Automatic annotation (TrEMBL), chains A, B:
InterPro entries: DDH_dom, DHH_sf, DHHA2, DHHA2_dom_sf. GO terms for cellular component: cytoplasm. Its cofactor is Mn(2+). Residues 179-306 form the DHHA2 domain. It is an enzyme of class 3 (hydrolase). One of its GO terms (molecular function) is metal ion binding. It comes from the Bacteria. It catalyses: diphosphate + H2O = 2 phosphate + H(+). This is inorganic diphosphatase. The keyword Translocase does not apply. SUPFAM superfamilies: DHH phosphoesterases. Its EC number is 3.6.1.1. SMART domains: DHHA2.
């Protein structure tokens, strides 16, 4: 039995890709079970409810040598804590290749697409398998989530084509209305503790000799988030110390306005942000304008800055 | 223009995969040129003559940031010397994933198959492109070469199916007779210097803190190779010192007998061979029996030994 899972601090693409790929592997004769590496966010919970699906179980500690499939990630820092001891047989991902290695020749599929879901649709087509309605709903939701309904610069024509193909199978007549419902669910942060808001979509990256934490909150209601700015900055400061980070940023992305205002905790981050983006922070907020993609815009700029 | 190349000390799969993948990329709208990272061996020269093709040019030193496609390898030690400065956009390979990273999301295809050629046939099918006769000849040759005409334990059903599909397109009526011609060409080592024999199919691997060099000579005429044993062991000893290796092995694989007798240079290698394979060397030869695949049998056993 192959265990299939997406990254820590899972988003909609990570959770749905695990469910759909486990199903696809099983239908192709390789029994597989989906797991998650953290709590689904509000958007993912909404998507699962709409699809009539339960969230996958939390990944237990797998014995060394267990066969696994990674979806929507490949770096150890974003994966199961004992990844180095596991037997990575399959990877389906749309991120750059990081520190992954495999003990044996494996099945790896990486493409520079807006989301893992678009690649999973391609795998169905290659296998000659139809996409079942529930899977279509999960994949469509992941495309809309990861591309911010095609607003993100990571969006490709293949992502648009995938959404158009999947919507009728999923029974979604009005894709824009459905996307707005997803984004509203994601933005309904209620009394979520600041620590959880920071970690909802949060990844660590290595830049030169430093480890940085980069969080993103995508919301249709940035005012709510900035209303909790002091709490969030305290949570960032605590995480920075606890994890010995060189820096920590929390980007608040206004989905509808397609803008990014990023919270910073100290002068160290302010200096890096100035060097990497040419932006002067005001107070503890740096206006990064239309740089809304961590993967395609924020991380490459920081990598370029630190490799100077 | 994407530069496409296989590994150092190229074999038939490495050279033909570069030619065929460059052609496939170009036909798909991405202009690409094939290169090689060393001299074609006698078998590859025969295959190219039969296909009416020239060998690709030797890879020049590419400027930093040049876009490249790697075929039939992924590890830096087997690639262009300045790989770390190049922009890896595509990888098509059937080896385990080593130390490769990419600066951006890229297109990666890895499958646990007997050769890269079988995966390249799959890519043609996915792209809806027919395989042209010259490409079919190159791919068929690579399948036969890497699987030792289906004798190697790395052979999969997909490799057999690929060869059966490609042979009529390539105009090869008798696949076994053609394979014998290829193996005879490979075994016609004439007065090739010992240093070149050692490096003809040679790769370095990292086991724990040690770097090892593992050469293979696949031949229908092992008697010829053992007739040059003293010269070969001297070349191995020189390479071991020059490259600061922890150990060096040269496996002489009898293609038709499907057996492997491996040359060793010192007691250090003898001890490792005994620990990893349970085989006592006699003189400077260790009889590894039917372990004829470096990738699937020799390297995993050495990795297991060194990770104890």
């Amino acid at each position: 039995m192959i265990s299939v899972f997406g990254h820590l601090n899972p988003d909609t693409d990570a959770i749905t890709a695990a469910l759909v790929y486990a199903h696809l592997l099983s239908r192709s004769g390789t029994p597989a079970t989906a797991y998650r590496l953290g709590e689904p966010n509000q958007e993912t919970a909404f998507v699962l409810r709409q699809a009539g699906m339960q969230a996958p179980e939390l990944l237990p500690t797998l014995p060394a040598g267990s066969p696994v499939a990674l979806v929507d990630h490949n770096e150890a820092a974003q994966s199961a804590p004992n990844l180095a001891d596991l037997d990575v047989r399959y990877v389906v991902d749309h991120h750059k290749l990081g520190d992954l290695t495999t003990a044996q020749p494996a099945y790896l599929r990486f493409e520079p697409l807006g989301c893992t879901a678009t690649l999973l649709l391609k795998l169905h087509r290659e296998a000659g398998l139809s996409v079942e309605p529930t899977d279509a709903r999960l994949l469509l939701s992941a495309v809309l989530s990861d591309t911010l309904e095609f607003r993100s610069p990571t969006t490709t024509d293949a992502d648009r084509e995938a959404a158009a193909f999947l919507a009728p199978i999923a029974g979604v007549d009005d894709v824009t209305a459905y996307a707005m419902q997803m984004f509203a669910a994601k933005s309904d942060l209620g009394d979520t503790p600041a620590e959880r808001l920071l970690k909802m979509d949060y990844k660590e990256f290595t830049f030169g000799a430093q480890q940085w934490g980069l969080g993103v909150i995508e919301t249709t209601n940035p005012g709510y988030v900035f209303g909790r700015q002091a709490e969030l900055i305290a949570a960032m400061q605590a995480e920075k110390v606890a994890s010995g980070l060189g820096g920590i940023l929390l980007s608040v992305v206004d989905i509808l306005g397609e803008t990014n205002r990023t919270l910073i905790v100290s002068g160290a981050e302010a200096e890096v942000v100035k060097g990497a983006f040419g932006v002067e922070a005001e107070g503890q907020v740096a206006d990064l304008g239309q740089l809304i993609s961590r993967k395609k815009q924020i991380v490459p700029a920081l990598e370029a800055y630190f490799s100077k």
